[in-house]
Amino acid sequence: MASNFDKFQKRRLISSYFSVVLSVFLVLFLLGLLGFFIINSKKLADDFKEEIAMTVFFKNEAKDTTLTAFGKELKTARFAKSFVYVTKEAAAKQHTDIIGEDFMTFLGENPLQNSYDIHLKADYVVRDSIAKIESNLRKNAMISDIVYDKQLVNLVNDNIKKVSMWILITSGFLTFIAVLLINSSLRLSIHSHRFTIKTMQMVGATKAFIRKPFIVRSVRLGMIGSGLAIIALIGVLIYIQTNFPGLGILDNKVLVALVLLSVFGIGVLITWLSTYFATQRFLNLRTDDLY
């Protein structure tokens, strides 16, 4: 009989430990995925911004030296990520390829202009900055016009602000849920030892002495759950990098390492705090309240 009871207690203890590890693993895995989404959402937004081109058209009387000098200025310009010089002949060929016929045969001349297609750095693709860049470029007397999609620039920035706000709200909500889930699992685990805690207290053990083994055990379980979450996250990262290399999810290794370390640190911190307050609750209960 005693043997069966011991086996039952052992199975219940293992089940309790497993539930704690599983809760920590699942919650931290989801938080880690959210963390990677956040750090890569900015990269994706920046990549999209940098795809928006500003085209600078030059007057026909602009000499080659003027065009070359402008290209040299762009090389040192802080706002330019990349640029391409497009001659009016190349532009005419592009139009012919798109339209499917040579429009110069009935016009008799090439009406297009030499131009530079400039891709700005993401930080400069905002309403005020891009307007200032345009104003400075227009000071060049040989520039006839500057064209870019102003509505798209405004739309992109407005949507990025909205998405960032919702990501922040979602992150806070999930973090709150994570703390509640892990805390609940640990409280249930410690609840089964409430009589042991009270017995130790009645024979004179200090609160710190009673709390220590529970905290050590919970932190170990938290480390195991965090470790499993990190292994799973690394597996997801490798899978994404292998199958979708264009996303460059592992380009910023410092941020990736920071997210993984944060996952481990959160696992340890939450289990430590939850166990501390859970044991403190039972230590402060009267003996009659344990039932």
What can you tell me about this protein's structure?
The chain folds into 2 domains: 14-47 and 163-290, no CATH class; 53-148, 2-Layer Sandwich (Alpha-Beta Plaits). 71% of the residues lie in helices and 8% in strands. The chain is rod-shaped, with a radius of gyration of 32 Å. The chain has a 4-stranded antiparallel sheet with strand order 2-3-1-4. 20% of the residues are buried. It contains 9 helices and 4 strands, in the order H-E-H-E-H-H-E-H-E-H-H-H-H.
Q: Which SSEs are present, and which pair or pack?
A:
Elements (H helix, E strand, L loop, with lengths): L1 H48 L3 E6 L5 H13 L3 E7 L1 H12 L4 H4 L7 E6 L6 H11 L5 E5 L2 H42 L2 H9 L4 H37 L9 H32 L7
Major sheet size, sense and barrel closure = 4 strands, antiparallel
Whole-angstrom Rg = 32 Å
Strand arrangement, major sheet = 2-3-1-4
Shape descriptor reads: rod-shaped
Oligomer: single chain
Low-confidence stretches: none
* Helix fraction bin: over 70%
Structural class: alpha+beta
Tally of alpha and pi helices: 9
**How many beta-strand runs?**
4
Mean of pLDDT: 80
Number of self-contained structural domains: 2
Strand content: 5-15%
Order of helices and strands: HEHEHHEHEHHHH
How many angstroms separate the termini? 25 Å
